[in-house]
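Input chain follows. Return structure tokens only.
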Amino acid sequence: MVEYKFNAQKLNGQAISGTLTAESSSEGKKKIQRLAEKNQLKLLTVEKKSTFLYKAQKGTDKPIHGEQKAFNKKEVEDALARLGYKPLSVNKKLLDFQAKPPVSEIVTFVKISAELLEQKLAYGEILTLLINDTQNLALKNTLKEINNELKKGADSQATFLKYQDIFGKFTAYMLGLASKSGNMTEIYLATAKFLERTQEFRKNMRSALITPMVTVFVLFLAVLFYVGYIFPETAKLFVRFGVELPPMTAFTLKISDFLMENPLLVTALFIIPPIAVWQFSRTDKGKYMIDQYILKLPVIGSLIHKTLIEVFCRVFYTLYSGSAESIEPIRIAAEATGNAYFEDRVKNIAIPLMVKKGVGVTESFEASGVFTETALSRFHSGEETGTIKNTALQLANYYETETVYKLKNLIELIQVGIAMFIMVVMILLTLVSAETATVRPKTPGTAAITNTIHGNIA
């Protein structure tokens, strides 16, 4: 997120100023331009909030160095002067790039905040403590800015949403909402639980998919090197002396010749498709289609689907306060899943049915087509008995237990499958090599050459 400050003038000469945030610099400038055109304003200045490096000194103390975000140099100098420092130098940071903190740092911040809130500590004191103890520079600076803005009376939700590139959209929304709600501690605890589950699931998914994929890729490169370089050096000696090659050896040699004669084509076939899929996945349509297809994958699709329902139910439980105010919790819970297909079906099918036609929660969820029979059955019971909030929590806990257990079994199954795949590949390579070793010359004159070759192979 980027933040802009603008100064403008109305037609009657009145000066006005304001700030706004946007996803990118270009979007921010377009927003300001549209605002000026709509209200017939003459823009005087447009400044982007940037990071400034400063050197300042208080009295005869040793000069200090630091950095501060501001719209211009004068703001930093004035802020230092108010603190009793004399600015020695203030310069805009050339490479104003701030890496996103690791998820573990965000989880730690939210968990500690929740624990301190349970101990009835004031939120301002919690932020001060965590600012001093946080090691990650990006998170430390973000917490400083949030603390300063909240002290000035800024809206908590708007403040946290400005830093959604640091916290993530859902986390920023929840933390901002917590300050305005009556159950701040509960929302922080739920957010911490959500982040932990997301982190754990991604870690397990990496173990289940990424590690085996890397193993297979390295094996593929090894086989490619053997077939494309090592094997032909031996097999072509037989061809050169007119020795008839057995079927597997001849077929492998043809593959080798194709690889060596068409290196660009082979490279393109293995590089272009993944890049194309990656680029497609960055579009709205691509993300929607991929997220939809993921849920249909055998075995792992079911695990991902149930994890999405778990996340939905956990967030819904945290935000739901009664049937009269169920739409907003459902919308936020759908966004929290992070799956474009699941989110779209809930927001564009289930919610409109509830708002426009007065359809119940269970019927609306069933129409969306993204909830399991188990989930629909439990929601139906909860809706009839008026315990839909607790039902959501029970479902979340149930699916958490199930997915953790099944994912562990899946990881073991994949590891066994990869081991068997490697074994099959190695057996095939051994068979090809063994078959090559059985080649015999047609004429006595080549016996010495063949013996030499067999000796080299051995």
